[in-house]
Amino acid sequence: MKILFLGGTGNISAECAALLHERGHEILVLTRGRTEIPSQYRALRADRLDLNSMRSALRGVEADVIINFVGYDLPELQIDFEMFRGKIQQYIFISSVTVCAKPPKVPITEENPLGNVWWDYARKKEACEKWLGERYEREQFPVTIVRPSHTYSKRLVPNPISSASFTYASRLEHGKPVLVPDDGENPWTLTAASDFAVGLAGLVGNSKALGEVFQITSDEVLTWNQIAAEINDAVAGPSPPQIVGVPTDFICQLAPQWAGNIKGDKAHPGVFDNSKTKRFVPEFKCRKAFREGVRESVAWLRAHPEIQNLSPQIDATMDAVIEAWRASRG
Fold first, then answer.
1. What is the C-alpha separation between 210 and 203, in angstroms, rounded?
2. Which segments of the chain are extended strands (E)?
3. Please, what sign has the CA dihedral across residues 296, 109, 23, 69?
4. For residues 145 and 66, what is the distance between their CA atoms, to the nearest angstrom?
5. Is 325 strand, coil or helix?
6. Full-model pTM
7. What span, in angstroms and rounded, lies between the C-alpha atoms of 178 and 322?
């Protein structure tokens, strides 16, 4: 099949494109031209927000399946709908489990009530899901919705503050304290992108998946304290690591820019039931434990320091929050 990726070089999508290419599919990647596309894929350049630009880039291009990894706003989806309706077998929208109401009923399933009042990102994803669901019901637009949770690859070390930055891991490496929400005992799930890719690949081209919603996560559950300890071991930080539990409300008061991410996600239990995905994709099984995956990530990022995205602002904010919390405790 010809599979067009809207976003094919990111944290999750790169692994998905690689696996589908390995399985014999032809991969096309729509790009703005800012990121290098692997030579084995066909690169198409366009502005995602410009219908005319999209039409120009895709003129004469036929695809069986579209996988949208970069959709956040309805205008983008409306352009896709105009471009692809009646022309494709399947449109896979990568949403997020953050659309579920918080605190969630666990284990979280595809049937959990929606409505995350704490995070604008989640509300936008929910609006996209609803609009696409209406297109399926009214016009049989062949949509499948996929919800990842906290997924990581060699490109990042997942943490409760900013997984896109190596700052959290760097602090542990240098013996500096890191914060975790509340007492750090909140159960959480981290999924390797290579494992997620297996679940997604099994849904591609699956006509039974049309009109359905799937969450794809690992079954391994760790606490934030355990996650921070594993990161510390991976970077060979001092023992024991300085892990500071700070109440969620206190963090959000001092660092409101983190409120959506923490109060709308990381401070709540992240435990999932993946039985629906396993029914549709029998080969789906998460094989990479976080202990293994985080060591791969640290090794790769150390070899590619230009990708580490160290943030002085995150570093300074974490110092300020931890110092203020310690001061409040006397």
1. 9
2. 2-6, 26-31, 42-45, 65-68, 90-94, 143-148, 150-152, 178-181, 187-192, 213-216, 221-223, 243-246
3. negative
4. 12
5. helix
6. 0.96
7. 8
The confidence score (pLDDT) of residue 57 equals 87
CA–CA gap between residue 192 and residue 284 (Å, rounded) = 13
Residues 6+ apart with CB under 8 A from 310: 165, 166, 167, 170
Please give the pLDDT value at position 178.
98
Q: Residue 31: what pLDDT?
A: 85
Of 31, 24, 40, 26, nearest in space to 9 by CA? 31
Flag whether pLDDT at 33 surpasses 80: no
* Per-residue pLDDT reduced to its tens digit, 118-175: 999 999 999 999 999 999 999 999 999 999 999 999 999 999 999 999 999 999 999 9
Looking at the chain, the number of H-run helices and the number of E-run strands are 12, 12
* Number of residues that make up the chain: 330
Q: What distance in Å separates the CA atoms of residue 178 and residue 240, rounded to the nearest whole number?
A: 12
Tokens of 301: 């990022």
